[in-house]
## 1
Amino acid sequence: MSQSIRWFTFAAPSRFYALTAALNPWLWALAIGLAIAGLSIGFLVAPTDATQGDSYRIIFIHVPAAWMSMFLYVVMAFWAALGLAFNTRLSSMLASAIAPTGALFTFIALWTGSLWGRPTWGTYWVWDARLTSELVLLFLYLGFMALQAAIDEPRRADRAGALLAIVGVVNVPIIYYSVQWWNTLHQGASVSLRSSPKMATLMLTGMLVMVFAFWAYAIAAAMVRVRCIIREREA
Amino acid sequence: MKEFFAMGGYAWYVWGSYGVTFLVLLAEILLLRKRARETKT
């Protein structure tokens, strides 16, 4: 046994706690550094767009936030499901720790999208497939948090929340493919694995750097929150 | 400099997006710090 990898070493909240304590300052520094780099490229290096003017610069937070909103939901549902299946309490704590940050990025995606929609489509909001399904995602996050907050016993709250999170996963592919399945005002995917990116290299670079900045931020924030949850529950 | 902040006439949309994003992220950080301080004692 001593030679094999101890997969569950960090499944113990106490060890996980120590690991994240050491990692977190680096994650915050990484998030700030990447954000400065990404915004420098986005505002100082990338040129004004020929058709959209400077309004396109919203892309540097809109697209990364929208990606994070969907990605964090899948990660949250994954940990919630693992906690439900294996009764590992740290998994459920991770799911609870991710939810508020996910909701935040969903809000940012909706807010920036609205402010981008006004100059490009002439309206702040329209009930089309992409926008509506993203709004449903925000309600799923809020529903998950409200449900967990309404149940006093933590492990019961974990199980109830997990069911909601798992059922809600169906919404993520609906958001992602909504621009293909339905006629919507929203444009198609800017970046996909099957085709070359439909945007200039500088714009793409700035956007991807911001994606990594949001990644680092989301991990750091979720880690601080999971440490709070560990302290609250295991005290 | 003035030209930069004007964003080619899109100042409200661009800075409205970045301003609110910055504020909500800052709010989350402050709330997390508060919660962390409260749970440590």
Note: The mean pLDDT of chain B is 92.
## 2
Amino acid sequence: MNGSDWLPLIALVLVVSSVLLLVGFAIFRRKRTPVFREIPAFTHLRKAIGRSVEDGSRLHVSLGHGSLATPQGATGLAGLSALRRLADLASTSDKAPIATSGDPSLALLSQDILQTSYKEATGGGLPDSTNARLTGLTPFSYASGTMAVMSEEHVSTNLVLGSIGVEAGLLTDMAENQQSFMLAASDSLPAQAVLYASAQEPLIGEELFATAQYIQPSPMHAASLTVQDILRWILIAGILLGAFLKMAGLL
Amino acid sequence: MKNLLSTVIAILAGLIVLVGFFLKIPILLEIRTILLDWAVIVAAMAVFVGVINMIRVNNTQLSSGQNSRYYNLVLMVSLVLTFGLGLFFKTGHPIMNFIFYSIQMPIEKMLMALLAVTLLLASIRLLQKRLNLFSVLFLLVTLLILLGTAPLPFGEIPFISRILRPFITQILAGAGARGILLGIALATITTGLRILLAADRPYGGK
């Protein structure tokens, strides 16, 4: 068996152990929510949502252009999960939240989420089915279409949660011009560098995937973060062990 | 009932594709290929539905008399024209190439150039917005990398371009980037598993 033959086996062990841990933590720690480190961006987000509900302005969630059929799809799914919670929080607002995306399947799912949330909150269907929008199919056309939404739809709170590249800088600039709140996160490293310099509240790395838990905690999302931490420690131990064995000439 | 059915289909499809990656059982691989082919067809149909959504949004704005109605009109005319020409001429036809290389690409490049200006402004505003050690460090490193890369009138600064820049980009930034990417990869695993376990159901609005 050479090195590459081990990879599927290692991946299988990783997936199976993650499933067991995820289910285990979600069931056994259902009543005791673990405490995660405080991320000030989420505290500011809650205040911004409160303000937008009070003044009747709109909440805008931008889900990026990561196709669900690619590895970037996970970022979009994390964004959708957060959108559901944000839509619930903003359900008492005069104006329903608006979701923009650069991928058609994300646009369809976000429409489904906004409609379900509105239906559960009011008992009726979403009055405006154009609240979930496909704003462009290429990165820059998506950014320019989203900028138009930010400037024309009376938006006071913006969230960029998804796979987006450096064009995120154009969105943060628009938010700055509109003097609206902007929390932004992406899975792309260049985009994270851009967001760090330009966004009001940037999230770095996997913080994007924790958004749903920080907005509205649930046992499964809490378990998910705990499993991530456990896997991280296993990875750290593996890297250290590998480096040690390599230095000792055993690898 | 509809939600239950979509949940069952989603879990089954996800499981088959995942297990097919680990176990090379012929029948499983065959089903996996069929499912992936279906996913491609559904994704293509989603583009069509997405474009209809775009037309509806622009049509609503056009009829509501907003300030941006002229832009909406330009978008609708361009969309219909490009779609019509695309149906008539094949991909790679000079007219289609003209639309792509002479209209679409220059516009996107112009936005890229605009981005450079907005980033410069954002860097200037960074200290005003968040005055802390990390912001100062961020700006200092940006300046050092630019100094180590940009052609200077008096030639390069050897210490910066030969020692400091490679050390920052290849060791510090490289290691940091790997750490961030590993964190994202782990989060991707748990996000995928939540979907597979039906804890998150974006297809049912949950």
Note: The longest strand of chain A covers residues 155-163.
## 3
Amino acid sequence: MNRGTWLLGRLAQIVPTFVLIGLLTFVLARLLPGDPISAVLGDHASDATVARLTAQMGLDQPIPIQFLHFMQGVMSGHLGDSIAYRIPVTQLIGERLPVTLALTAMSMVIAVALAIPLAFIAAIEADRWPDLLIRGVFQVGLSTPIFYVALLLLTVFAAWLGLFPVGGYGDGMMEHLWHLFLPACTLAFSFAAVLMRSLRGAILAVLTAEFVDFARSKGIRRRIILMRHVLRNALIATVSLIGLNVGSLLGGAVITESVFAVPGVGRLMVDSIFARDYPVIQALTLALAVLVSLAFLITDIVQMTLDPRVAR
Amino acid sequence: MGLRTKLPLILGCVLLGVMIAFAVAPDVFSPMDPLAFDYDALLAPPSAAHWFGTDQFGRDMLSRTISASRIDLQIAIFAMAGPLLIGSLIGLLVGWFGGVADAVFGRLADLVVTFPFLVLVIAIVAVLGPGLINMYIAVALVGWVVYAKLMRGEVRVQRSLDYVAAGRVLGYSTSRVLFRHVLPNAVRSVLVYAVTDMALAILLGSSLGYLGLGAQPPEAEWGVLIADGKNFFDTAPWISLAPGVAIVAAGLGFSLVGDGLASLLDVKR
């Protein structure tokens, strides 16, 4: 299969994926116990009001028709209004999403910058003390919940040392970066642990591969082998790991944003639960799943560019 | 197997042993009554009397943390058991019978992983309402996929082995072959994964507790205890110390035991 056909096929897959994401989100909202009408109106609304809102929200239609209407809304960007903010959900998410994306991107950069050199050291020094120390620290990191890492960083670097703000987002690019630094470090810590663990394994596998032995037997210097062969393979592994973990980073952003009062979609999601703002929760679930499936798509394309064997 | 590879497993067992002891008999280990207010020691820092300090009501944080072990152990068990039971059964069936059911399962599994785990769990809790029971339901609805994939893979390997053919030749019924012979052979790696998964369950349970979506006060849970003290993070940071250490120790315990069992039983991850 050549690259063009592969790419077309991969792009075509995204359509059924989007429809299925829509279906699952719809099923979540309509079929689980819990009545959207009483959620909006409370338990003391009159029957007339209930009937009017039921018709207005299209809940008197058969389920398949409701699903079609829902998908039409998704396609045209009409996902209803937020109950708490009284503005269209799409507008609300549009305002908050860039914050979360910036946070996630920043944490990816920090995590990769931490994980790649440490994974190299751990793999080269495998089973000696630098390796054991690095793995030990990250093992503890994997067992520490994100909200606790966030609280620790907040207490030490914001409250005691006063190096960073306690929360919020600030105004202007530089302030945004400054406000997002601790939250991004929080997210990066657990992600770096995941990255480090897999990269160490990947690098170890490359180091013992035949082509590295061959290169060494040709008399190529160790450093050049490491840079040219091992690093390249490690980078390919990193790309796919980033793609696979976008979902857990976004999930982690929900918690991090709540601790640091960062006005992104994660905090919006938690706030919406307590405000019973169902349209926002539904739209956010949908939007984040779409985002993850796009991340999978981009990962596949980048991976194919780096390693043409993927397309075969 | 050398001592060096066994050491993490032993450490994990010790950590879990302490947690289970705390959960079974909190009264034996708590230095004082976890609910007793001490108005002479409000927000007191760690001292000889209160090793991990006190909260805004003067309650001893060490005692509160020990008495919360019970709920967190319960979370580790139930948040793992639901997905384990549902996922194993589905994986067993689609792995054995294949066909349309297997294809549908494949699509569904691909679909579920596009939803961030935590976001989907939170969305379901949002519909059902906050609380431990609803959290277990949400985790079961989302988490079964991992177990089903694992079990499906194992069953497909077992299906082609000689003992299965022998069972068929002997005229055993499908359900007898499946549940008496294939299941015990396929379940090992699934059970080992379940131990590691209990570490994730503790992290998830305490995170939802912290956000106010899991265990509800006055149910004492480590995440809830930390959330209780979060307004005093700059003046009384010790409030979160004991429950925080407890979460890390429990998470570490389950993942060390999980990893140790995997290498001891030679289960591929």
Note: The CA atoms of residues 142 and 194 of chain A lie 8 Å apart.
## 4
Amino acid sequence: MVTEGRPSVAAGSSGSGVAAGADHRSAHAARRSDWFLSRANLGVLIDVLHEDGRTVIGPTVVDNAIVYDELQSVADLPVGLGDEQAPGHYRIVERGDQRAFGFTVGPISPKRWLFPSPLSVNVGSRDGRSVAFDRVPNDPPKLAFLGVRACELAAMGIHDRVLLGGPYTDEDYRARRENALVIAVNCTAAGATCFCTSMGTGPEARDGFDLALTELDDGFVVQVGSPAGADLVARLPVRAADTEQASSAAEAVARVAQEIGDPVPIAGLHDRLLAQFDSPEWARIAERCLSCANCTMVCPTCFCNTIIQQSALDGQTSTSERIWDSCFTAGFARVAGGNFRSRPRDRYRQWLTHKFATWVDQFDSFGCVGCGRCITWCPVGIDVRAELQAIAPPLAPRPEPTKPRPVAAAPGSYVTGRVMAVHQETVDVTTLTVGALDDPFLAGEPGQFAMVDLPSFPQLPISISRYGRDTVDFTIRAAGPATAALTGLGPGDELGLRGPLGAPWPIERAMVHDVVIVTGGIGLAPLRPLIDALLAQRDRFDAIRLYYGARTPGDQLYREELRGWAARGDMEVELTVDRADDTWTGPVGVVTHLFDRTTWEGSRSLAFVCGPERMMEATVDELYARGLAPDRIFVTLERHMQCGIGLCGHCQMGRLFVCRDGPVFALSDLGDIFGREGI
Amino acid sequence: MPTAAARPRLRVGVAKMASCDGCQLTLLDLEDELLGLAERFEIVEFPEASSARSAGPFDVLLVEGSVSTADQAVEIVELRKQAKRMVTIGACANHGGIQALRNWSDHDAFRAAVYAHPEYIESLATATPVSDYVTVDAELNGCPISPIQLRELLASVAIGRRPQIREESVCLACKRRSVVCVMVSQGIPCLGPVTQSGCGALCPRFGRGCYGCYGPKEQANAAGLGRAFEYGGREGAEVSRLFAGFTGWAPPFREVIDAHGGPPGRTNGRANDQTNGQASDHASDGGGARMEDPGHAR
């Protein structure tokens, strides 16, 4: 009865944890009224669970560790005990208090019960020429998990997606999951190997539980997470938690989060890691890794398994069992004739890239919840946090690439800048260097633009073509009266600015990739600050290739800089023109023909493209042909932008506002609207 | 196809080299299975169990023990000719056994020290695996071997398929049984991470470190584990002693032993005499000592 209507994997035929999560979110939102259970009454909770015929699985001391096992009574809880954890190290320690949950996680997770090993699968038999296979029924026990941590709830959610969320499901798992009640405990102690904060799973239990306890000195703040949890609370000697208790609980959990910090910066981790298949680090790790598989065995999300058989001597019957297996074992990737991952370095790479990259592609989340078990229980203390850092180093410690807050955004609220210098690029293109700006304006990012205004002229979106120390450049083609007025300004003249606006080039995604920049005509202008930024931290990127086409040699922008970039030696610069003149000895033709001048492989590259839309379409086709995926091709689009902040509607493109959501887009974000006529 | 029962019984023999006979007695430990085995197999040579003898041929010949005398070196070649399938059983036959520790020492000096008339002792200077002399079709590991694996081997022969012997570390057996790691939780040095499974994690289940009697697992990074022991505060000689057990002569373990000055108690260093000679003299008394945590150093 208790489980009926409980928001869990039971919900719906789709059977995925996603649905359960949605239910729990609503429960979370509605959990304003928390309860308080005194320490003396904790035993009542266990007794009530027993009354319901449940086996209670909770923390207790077995063989020198605090592990999940069957609890007979409250006396089995590890009261007053904590744990000391480090890479390859675990010890139980005395806390000197009466806390029942003053530790983090041990080597055993609820996986032991929800995804048991061994699990009887079937009995096969042969009778003459007939064969039969009889399934072995595994009646799921009626369990209650007590003390489940936020990271472990997240692991259950991952198993729900893996084992129930796809086209084929594990019905044994489903039955066990549906039959289990989950009483979570919010962590009030941080372990030295924990990194739930980085993985976004803890330390606070947010959903996926029936009840969640937060331990205080004198008792427990109790949150209800499901109807079954509410039924349970109704039978417990609880009173409403007062505000002081509620805030103490929240503070305790917040302290843990602060203590753990952010040991594994996950921004861009998927791509960073997949770019490192050939890293020398894998061999270095293999000098330490024993391929003993402990990390996968203690992992609460690792689900790889093998069916083993035991045959009768006459070969007429055999029983099959499912056991936990691991990508670190010899037979795991072996076929007749060889082993796809014979070397330990290959196995470690498989494991790490699965957990932190390809799992995301398969199941829409990391395969890691940051519980730290693989670190603590590695016999040689390999620390996955450090290895991720070594193999796929995060970006330089700088703020996330959030859009800088524009100094002036709303139409009408301009700041002024003053033209400091004017440089004639071509017959009709001029670069204005504008100074006397507010600092925030200077903190803009490559790819952003400003709305530029001269009174009585229409405001224009102009890309920022360079960030100087205290100036920004605008490179403008005199195409009409307003642009002609702008290019006609001289040093000392003022102009109105709003910005910087729009999404920048995602430079951080290009780290450890080859960078391909393809542009035409004045399209080089918004790419110049990108090139500046790439060259400023040159060693963070692999090859940099610039392909630039112009109508005529005289239409090339930044001619001196082009020569300078080509002379650096660490950047490939290829130029072409549509029509040569007698000064030109280089290639003639479309820009994509330049790709063939050197050999390069698209799968290692990220592309940044800016130019006329037809040119970008042709370029994108070529990039696809070279193996670039659409999420690694970035284009900047031109549309009629007026407000620059997504409020006027001019630049709408499908579901997007080019000014606000772009102008830089990944092709994967644009989908089939890119290059489509009439959008 | 003919049914299994219609096939003729397979001729099984049991032979031994230098060994304690514990492995071959595992065959008798298959008590509940013996009648079933007798339907499929005819045991024609098994001196520990029967006075009936046979010199072959054998469909399956189980060979125990390492090659330790000149006579054995001849005999094993002869046995190989008689055996359709030769299966070596146990740490001695597969890895040399505990007696292979003499391989690091002066054989003649040992003989002279132990026996009043060493001239009567006709042993080779080394005790080495059967596979050093002849081709072996399968190996069952352990000291002694596992009855479960022996049964699986015989069943696979009877059925005509490959034996399902898992190639993995002892750690998987520990974890599947919810045994808490003795190394991580207590600092007890354990060879389990680099040792082939099959024992059901017997030692860790009783709070002891694995001493590697099943021998190195495939791709065993024994050197990596040795370094972890050192980081845990152990001397080279202690590390050497940990690996210098029943399967110390197996190459991955042997390399660690050699790199740490050879096994304790040796009388004449064949290898690395110069590295750590005097440390080995007092290295054998470290049993039961705990180590500090591995892995903090990199």
Note: Chain B touches chain A through 54 residues (CB under 8 Å).
